[in-house]
Amino acid sequence: MSSSHAAPTSPERKAKDVLVGDLKAKFDKMTSAVLVDFKGLNVDTVTRLRNEFRKNGVEYKVVKNTLLKQAIKDKAFAESFGKHLVGMTGIAWSYEDPSAAAKILKAFKKDAEKLKIKAGLIEGQILGGDAVENQLATMPGKDELRSMLLATLQAPLTQFVQQLAAPSQNFVYVLAAKEQQG
Question: How many folded domains does the chain comprise?
Fold first, then answer.
């Protein structure tokens, strides 16, 4: 069928194209994504989960699997990640702290047993639900990494100052020992 005979684009099709473009943009700027099966959760629980995500800079959306598959079709991980796009699917994108969504979901699962983590995606690598909980959720967050880096940077300075002070301290000890002998 040539393009001159193509049917005009329906408003629904345009809306879907916009949504797919929006989803592509989220995948392009995310540091990680987690797929969730929320079947069986009540509205109050889902609302609390959404609020927790929002507070922590995580974007959460319930999207049709076909639209998600369309949004990632050009990505290297499309086939392996697409296998997890079955049933009810919510997706949580983390943009700064790769472990943020995973940590929230892991904590939330304690109160909401019906919540299931399907899979995760970080740097093009697909993680199973267990790996999201046991590896991604236990990674240090952005603030934890900053404090670890700061401690690492400060350690040599602290040791250097101690080394500088050591000769004068030792000299004081020698003088004190001579005074006691004398």
Answer: 2
